[in-house]
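Structure in, sequence out. Go:
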């Protein structure tokens, strides 16, 4: 797939099929992620691959409890909270493959002052983001309908505990990897219209 075409045609798809994704496909997608540039070439990303329902359900349950607690503390209506929690859980448990992208500062530079510490952390976060973008584009090229979910940023400790991750692994995002789901005519028309508007704005 030609690069510019891949960038313009990639979409975040939240409807899944139950067809399994081949191990070799997952490995190619992760290899593409690892080719991303990174600060000092330290590659501060770590990926957790979940293909077993038990792990996905455990993560969805833990994140759902945290989401429910946070939103009820905000004073949101219980019915809305329940709907949001169920929707989030379904996105995690419904995909045949879920990849958790984490950040680690273990191999990054360490400074005594807060200014440089903050800059170093930002460089690590940007590095992980570029790896995720590579992963998303590679998944699209492989015919997968990937979706990037940022919810782990709200509860990194919860994610770490649910999956028993190393102490230095900080959850950044979930990427679901179902096989590509064909869009309906209405959805496709909406996407094409949005893309046309965006391209028109860049030309002005």
């Amino acid at each position: 797939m030609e690069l510019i075409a891949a960038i313009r045609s990639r979409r975040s798809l939240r409807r899944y099929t139950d067809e399994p994704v081949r191990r070799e496909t997952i490995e190619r997608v992760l290899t593409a992620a690892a080719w991303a540039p990174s600060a000092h070439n330290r590659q501060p990303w770590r990926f957790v691959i979940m293909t077993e329902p038990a792990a996905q359900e455990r993560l969805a349950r833990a994140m759902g409890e945290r989401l429910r607690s946070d939103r009820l503390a905000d004073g949101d209506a219980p019915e809305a909270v329940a709907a949001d929690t169920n929707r989030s859980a379904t996105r995690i448990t419904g995909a045949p493959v879920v990849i958790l992208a984490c950040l680690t500062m273990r191999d990054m530079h360490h400074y005594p002052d807060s200014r440089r510490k903050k800059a170093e952390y930002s460089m690590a976060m940007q590095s992980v983001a570029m790896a995720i973008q590579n992963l998303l584009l590679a998944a699209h090229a492989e015919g997968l309908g990937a979706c990037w979910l940022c919810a782990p940023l709200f509860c990194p400790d919860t994610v770490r505990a649910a999956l028993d991750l190393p102490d230095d692994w900080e959850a950044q995002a979930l990427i679901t990897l179902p096989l590509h789901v064909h869009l309906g005519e209405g959805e496709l028309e909406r996407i094409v219209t949005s893309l046309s508007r965006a391209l028109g704005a860049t030309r002005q």
